[in-house]
Design brief:
Strand order of the largest sheet: 1-3-2-4-5-6-9-8-7
CATH topology: Rossmann fold
Strand content: 15-25%
Radius of gyration: 17 Å
Structural class: alpha/beta
CATH class: Alpha Beta
Distance between the termini: 33 Å
Shape: globular
Order of helices and strands: EEHHEHHEHEEHEEEHH
Length: 253
């Protein structure tokens, strides 16, 4: 089956050598082009010198083990294999450092991101699922520790599911002690607040961090709204998830 993706390369003036890579998976129903528009990850990539790959899902969706019955799952698509093949092929083709990539995604794409953390840890330095707590932790067995940054809105996901997801990755990465809790200053005045729970000192220098957007909806923080506020809730602008991904990535490259 022919699969497609969008690749954004930074200009030569800012491009890092070797060039790190972020994989960004769209939600369902959504396209790679729409994911690029919502996240403005290409602009962030240009500023910091990394590459972004926006894969396109089958039927504008992804097949996630243990996940929802999407068009991709109904068709028997293996999107974990697609992600692996994508990283293996674009590295030598575009002179990219795909040995330690970061995967991110929103909603259905975020659930695939969690699945990649479970099954493709040998290819990743970390994952950043947005609006997508872990599904089926019993079937998750990462081959090595990897850093995790979870971002959810309280009006979109149950807080206990968010805490359970963090607890799973804390156990997987053998993080010591209790989390360091903090809050972001209220700079946006958009009726949202952000609570952060961070676990550091985990195995092999990894970290597990959670951003809970209190009052936040099904959204990419700091990006364009996925849809109407009535349907998807508030898109917080207390922080920029795309810039945060680079900050996270740069700590663990």
């Amino acid at each position: 089956m022919k699969r497609t993706y969008l690749l954004h390369l930074p200009p030569a003036s800012t491009r890092l050598q070797p060039t790190p890579v972020v994989l960004a998976f769209h939600g369902w129903p959504m396209t790679a082009e729409r994911m690029a528009d919502i996240t403005h990850l290409s602009d962030v990539a240009d500023a910091h010198g990394f590459a972004v790959v926006f894969p396109q899902g089958y039927g504008d969706s992804w097949s996630v083990p243990g996940g929802l019955a999407t068009p991709a799952r109904d068709a028997g698509i293996d999107d974990v294999a697609f992600a692996r093949s994508l990283l293996d092929s674009i590295g030598p083709q575009y002179q990219l450092d795909t040995s330690r990539a970061v995967a991110t995604g929103i909603s259905n794409g975020g659930h695939l991101t969690e699945a990649l953390g479970c099954a493709l840890a040998d290819h990743l330095v970390g994952i950043v699922p947005v609006a997508a707590p872990l599904r089926g932790p019993a079937n998750c067995a990462p081959s090595r520790p990897l850093s995790v940054l979870e971002i959810v809105g309280s009006d979109d996901q149950d807080a206990s599911t968010f805490r359970d997801t963090l607890a799973f990755w804390v156990h997987a990465d053998k993080c010591p002690g209790r989390p360091v809790s903090s809050s972001l200053p209220d700079v946006a005045k958009d009726d949202t607040t952000v609570t952060i729970a961070g676990f550091t000192g985990c195995l092999d220098g990894t970290e597990v961090t959670g951003y809970l957007v209190n009052g936040g909806g099904h959204a990419w923080p700091g990006g364009r709204p996925v849809g109407s506020t009535d349907e998807f809730g508030v898109t917080t602008h207390q922080f920029d998830a795309s810039e945060l991904i680079w900050t996270f990535f740069s700590r663990h490259r």
